[in-house]
Design goal:
Blueprint (H helix, E strand, L loop, with lengths): L5 H30 L4 E3 L2 E2 L4 H19 L31 H12 L8 H20 L5 H13 L1 H7 L5 H19 L7 H22 L4 H24 L5 H32 L11 H10 L12 H22 L18 H17 L17 H21 L2 H7 L4 H20 L3 H7 L1 H25 L6 H12 L4
Antiparallel strand pairs: 1-2
Length: 503
């Protein structure tokens, strides 16, 4: 493990950022208007019924209100456009549902500049560059050089699907960066470097964790309790880990105490920040669907209309049983959207399966992990119902998803090997715990392959990067084993290309 000089990180981030800006501009100004004419909605956006178009329309209306009435008309969570309304028609925001933070951020930028999606490219490219940099720093802890780590991160950065998110208007640039900053921050705190910059890095990590929690909560407020749980879990894991090391005399009491204090500080800052964000959001935007829905009665009526009822399991503690019930309710609402859609989605997953008791949730866990990790499956890659989407853009995106999934399969084959190589590293178990837990939750609730593909991206790609790191380590060990000791100097010169530069 080694610390990384800030100027070198800034250079890497700048390269990522420049690529993201150029690729997004080409996507909006060339690829979509000329390559996907039938799917081009206008303004470089794709799909008349997609989130990007909806967010742009909401943001444009809010920006117009700001121009007319001043910044008092601005909203962080503006209304949601009705999906049944025709495109290019203004919608009365007062009569629509709330909770669209990407549109709120876009509206602020539109109000200060122009109401064009390309104005948002620098923000989205910066967030994606930050996410790639965080993943690079995580993977770099397991590899001897940065260039090898960069090879492992390239799929996360270059996959076509991710360009369709940060090159349009979606939540994913914010949530991807937030999740990876959150994970990196706790890895830094639990497994810090022992040098003069460790205190500075710990301070940066604590601030990063708190800010990432704010961003994720604003974008998907239902994840606030999940973030609280991971914060408590990571702090508990870190304190126990260092206590065990102290008892085993692998560290002195001073180091154990300093690390414990740092972790407890992170716990206090993160939990207080999350509590403040939720409280402020409820007070300033009580109509926000994600935090405190104004149409809660409508949502409950939907659930009751479906005859949803939860059977309490006596042998399961009440606290855990309530969490299972929340998962079941969330899945039921998601299934309701699928069943009542005007056009039944070909990407629906197990829509006939609903949870009625704790054992139903537990029994579905293997299937949820299978979907979250490996869908779309090889049987869906060939031309058929799943790939034969109505729009040209959807067909290409599903083919791209099949290609990316096939590449992921190759990298995930080496994940068990990576676990074996670094089985004694606490960082590895932390990221596996975080990624697999989030994948399980997403797989239990989300019953649509397309939505699941977007939500799972930062977690799957972290595992893919670690699997790729295991493959590179195996390859290097194999190459060394095939050469006599007298010839290893020549081998080292060949591998110097992959070592990169020292940070």
């Amino acid at each position: 493990m080694r610390t990384v000089a800030a100027p070198r990180l800034l250079k890497l981030w700048s390269v990522f950022f420049a690529y993201g800006c150029i690729a997004s501009l080409l996507l909006q100004l060339v690829v979509i208007p000329y390559g996907f004419k039938t799917s081009h909605w206008g303004h470089g956006l794709i799909h008349a019924g997609g989130d990007a178009v909806e967010y742009h329309m909401i943001a444009s209306q809010v920006a117009d209100k700001v121009h007319q009435h001043g910044w008092s008309a601005w909203q962080l969570f503006p209304g949601k456009v009705s999906p049944n309304s025709p495109p290019l028609v203004p919608y009365p925001l007062e009569k629509t549902r709330r909770g669209q933070a990407p549109a709120g951020i876009a509206s602020a930028v539109y109000a200060m500049t122009y109401s064009e999606p390309w104005i948002l490219i620098p923000i989205h490219a910066a967030l994606h560059a930050l996410a790639a940099l965080m993943l690079l720093l995580i993977v770099e802890r397991f590899l001897p050089n940065r260039r090898s780590a960069l090879l492992c991160v390239l799929p996360f950065f270059l996959y076509p699907s991710v360009l369709s998110w940060y090159g349009q208007i979606y939540r994913e640039p914010y949530t991807n960066a937030g999740n990876l900053v959150f994970l990196w921050g706790f890895i830094v705190l639990v497994a810090p470097h022992r040098d003069s910059r460790s205190k500075v890095q710990a301070s940066v990590a604590i601030v990063g964790i708190a800010l990432s929690a704010v961003v994720i909560t604003v974008m998907r407020a239902y994840e606030a309790p999940i973030l609280r749980g991971f914060t408590c879990a990571f702090v508990g894991i870190g304190v126990i880990y260092w206590a065990c090391r102290w008892i085993a005399r692998e560290c002195d009491a001073r180091r154990f105490a300093s690390t414990a204090v740092t972790l407890l500080t992170a716990l206090a800052v993160t939990l207080s920040t999350l509590t403040a964000v939720v409280a402020i959001t409820r007070r300033t935007h009580p109509e926000n669907v994600a935090v405190e829905p104004a149409d809660l009665a409508e949502e409950l009526a939907i659930v009751n209309a479906l005859n949803f009822s939860w059977q309490t399991t006596k042998v399961v503690p009440n606290v855990i049983d309530r969490r299972f019930e929340e998962i079941a309710t969330a899945r039921e609402k998601f299934l309701h959207v699928i069943r009542t859609a005007a056009i039944h989605p070909a990407t629906a997953i197990d829509e006939e399966i609903a949870f009625r008791k704790a054992s139903d949730v537990i029994a579905y866990v293997p299937r949820a992990l299978q979907q979250a990790l490996f869908s779309p499956f090889p049987t869906q890659w060939l031309p058929g119902k799943w790939t034969a989407a109505k729009s040209e853009s959807s067909r290409w995106m599903r083919r791209g998803a099949a290609f990316e999934t096939a590449c992921n399969y190759l990298a995930l084959l080496f994940l068990p090997l990576s676990i074996w190589f670094w089985r004694k590293r606490i960082e590895l178990w932390m990221l596996i715990f975080f990624c697999m837990s989030m994948l399980l939750l997403e797989g239990l609730v989300i019953a649509n392959t397309g939505t699941l593909f977007r939500h799972r991206f930062p977690y799957v790609m972290t595992l893919v990067a670690i699997g790729s790191a295991g493959f590179l380590t195996l390859l290097q060990q194999y190459k060394r084993a095939q050469v006599a000791p007298s010839d290893r100097r020549a081998l080292d010169s060949v591998w110097s290309f992959f070592r990169g530069y020292n940070a």
